[in-house]
Every structure is written in C-alpha cells, then in structure tokens.
Amino acid sequence: MTEKVIDLLKNGYVVIPKLLLKNYRKLKITEKELLLLIILMDNCDFDPERMAKEVGMSSKEVLTLVSGLTQKDIIVLNSVTNNNVCDEYIALDNLYEKLALILMENKEENKSSNIFDTFEKEFARTLSPMEYEIIGAWIEAGFEEETIKLALKEAIYNGVTNLRYIDKILYEWKKKGIKSKKDIANVKKGEQSKNEEVFDYDWLNE
Fold this sequence. Notes:
Arc Repressor Mutant, subunit A
C-alpha cells in the first residue's frame, strides 16, 4: 500500500507542494526547509549556488538547511561518478515515504469521521461537542466502528436517540464478548432458540 502511494507521489498524481504546505509541520521542518524542498522537487542536483539563488539565501544558509534536512532523515545526499567526474544529487525517497504515511493517516482520520456523519444522519441533527467526545471515547476504548454503528441501529430500532442508551448497549455487548455483526447474529440465534428476543431487551432497565 505504501509503495503505491509513493509511486503516485513521484509520478505527480498528487500535488506535492500542496501536500507539503498542509503537513510540513508534521515533518518537523521549518518554513525555510519547506521552501528548499519544493525547489529540490524540481531539480535534485546538489548545486548550492543555484539553490541559494532560487530560494534567495546564501550558499552557507542553504548548506545548513541541507544538513538539517539530512539529520531529520528527510533527504539523503548521494554522489555518482561518471567518466571520473563526481556529481552529487539529493534523493527525496525518504520525503516521499513520509508524505505517503501522512496521506494514509489522513485517509484513516477521514474514514473515522464518517461515523460522526452517520450519527448526525440518524439523529437528524448536529452532534454536540460532548457527543463527539463520547463517540471518540468509544473508538479509543477499542470498539470497532461497525460495532458502534450496529449499536446505533439497535437504539434507532427501539426508538431511542441518545448516546447514554447506546453506551449501555456497547458495554453490555462487550461483557458478552460481542465484537462484530456476526457475534450479534450468533447471540440472537442462541437467544431465539430459548424464545428470547435479544434486540427487544431494554438495556437501561435491566
């Protein structure tokens, strides 16, 4: 997965400067280092004088920035010899890899945000800050999003639209070892064999 994202970045399918502008602080780089990286994306030849001219700095300052980016494992300074001539260039592979990881992390964050959209759609209203915190706490506690959505569906089925009810459902399911839709189906099947309807159970008034 990471390799595919890196290929997309290298081949220009993602606007790298924009991605850098939004996330460069996550890489712990300065604004001057950011500017230098954008220049390097266009030309990786290690030419301090050219680079200094393009970024409007001194050659000494450029060398300091290159050293800092190397220490942060963002770039690698390499050399290649052709016909007894040694040329130096800066490899950006580490940068691409770090950007790929950030991009995937952002996608995961966006995926998690969908659960909040689901709640707001089912409740037909905007969630309060406290409700956002409660749902986030469920995720941090290890409840899978599928399980949370199933608990929401269960609450809606019983005509209840508050998180306290759903919280009770989740923790009752956790005690029973229910973690997925399949687990719920198995419990329902077992309860039905005893002529009990588990989904009609009032979890709040047990």
